[in-house]
User: Which sequence fits this backbone?
């Protein structure tokens, strides 16, 4: 079965076009410590995206939990300081509770006085990744890469990529993540979700 899977992927034209092209040499891995779900979150922005969505959105704001690898995303025309605070309130705090640490890069819209006040209010430690070194916040950078890869396969040049984003998220959340050996969905909800493939292709 595993061999058949490898052969199927090799024959898939889209899989070959969008596969990873790793040019950097392997480096020593450093573990990121997260003792329980949603204790540490990384936040980053994808964009501006070359093909503007039909609703005018150019950016995707991404947050990932370091423990479960669960990803939350929202699209924007521009990522303002207010939008960043509302994203943290709606997609992290009100859904999963207050994290202990939030890590962002050094972009101005991710490090405004509004974010500082918000973190102080909820006793959240706001950390910054090292400038010019995306790997310092590697978990969210890896999530960004995977989401973009899934979207490319799904939309194939269409400007309605924002409509496909929830399906791309479902694919990401229900795929086994190598670092944890489980799906983010299982780690968050303690059960596996029924995916479309299981409905379309009934098991024995």
Assistant:
């Amino acid at each position: 079965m595993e061999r058949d899977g490898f052969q199927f992927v090799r024959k898939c034209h889209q899989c070959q076009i969008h596969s990873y092209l790793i040019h950097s040499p392997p480096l020593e891995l450093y573990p990121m410590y997260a003792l329980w779900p949603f204790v540490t979150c990384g936040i980053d922005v994808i964009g501006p995206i070359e093909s503007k969505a039909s609703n005018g959105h150019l950016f995707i704001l991404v947050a990932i939990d370091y423990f479960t690898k669960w990803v939350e995303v929202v699209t924007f025309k521009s990522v303002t300081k207010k939008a960043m605070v509302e994203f943290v309130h709606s997609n992290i705090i009100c859904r999963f509770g207050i994290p202990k640490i939030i890590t962002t890069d050094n972009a101005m819209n991710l490090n405004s006085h509004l974010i500082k006040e918000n973190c102080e209010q909820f006793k959240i430690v706001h950390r910054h990744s090292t400038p010019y070194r995306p790997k310092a916040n590697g978990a969210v950078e890896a999530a960004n890469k995977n989401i973009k890869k899934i979207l490319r396969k799904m939309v194939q040049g269409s400007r309605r990529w924002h409509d496909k984003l929830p399906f791309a998220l479902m694919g990401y959340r229900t795929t086994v993540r190598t670092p944890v050996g489980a799906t983010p969905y299982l780690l968050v909800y303690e059960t596996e979700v029924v995916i479309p493939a299981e409905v379309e292709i009934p098991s024995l």
